[in-house]
Amino acid sequence: MAGGSVITFYKQDASELQQALDRDEEHVPDQERVLYRERTERLDDVHDRAKRREFPLGVAALLLGGAMVAMSARAMSGRDGARGALVQVTLARAVLSVTGFLITPDVRAAEFAVASLYGYASIGKMIFETTACLLVVVALTRPRSRAFFRAAEGSLWER
Fold it and tell me: What is the pLDDT of residues 43-74, one digit of tens each?
């Protein structure tokens, strides 16, 4: 889903994005509206300059997400080697998350500047995504998981 969001962001009409920002501006206290407008304009500029970095990351995230869904289905249906492929795709997604974090510091700073006006920030996004991927890998490599998938692989050939 994250990759689809990035792709949609860059493919949507700029006037639609501005309308969404204008609606969000209504929720900001009057004394902070000028600051909000400045920060969102800066965020737009930063996103425009970062498109060559962010768009490929979005496409990669979308493709890896689809591969994770496909490999999960294959693993649950007992296909040989699907669990191992799922582990590899999940690790690739964790690497993509860290890579995106490292090559887009300007975007994170601009997003934080806007989000801080609302009283929240998405500082832990990369940490959450990477930790989730690593926990999936740990779960898939546990002895009980390997035994479960081995039993599923065997039951496919017994049919």
Answer: 888 888 988 999 999 999 999 999 999 999 88
Question: Is the separation of the CB atoms in 71 and 82 below 8 Å?
Answer: yes
CA–CA distance, 89 with 86 (Å, rounded to integer): 5
Overall number of domains in the chain: 1
Crossing angle of the two packed helices 33-49 and 105-118, in degrees rounded to 10: 160
- Kindly compute the dihedral angle of the four CA atoms of residues 61, 138, 130, 98, in this order, to the nearest 10 degrees: -80
Maximal CA-CA distance, the chain: 70
For residue 13, what are its two tokens?
């009409």
Question: Do residues 98 and 131 make contact, with C-beta atoms less than 8 angstroms apart?
Answer: no
The structure's pTM equals 0.71
Domain residues for the domain of 59 are: 2-158
- Integer Cα distance of 82 and 13 in angstroms: 40
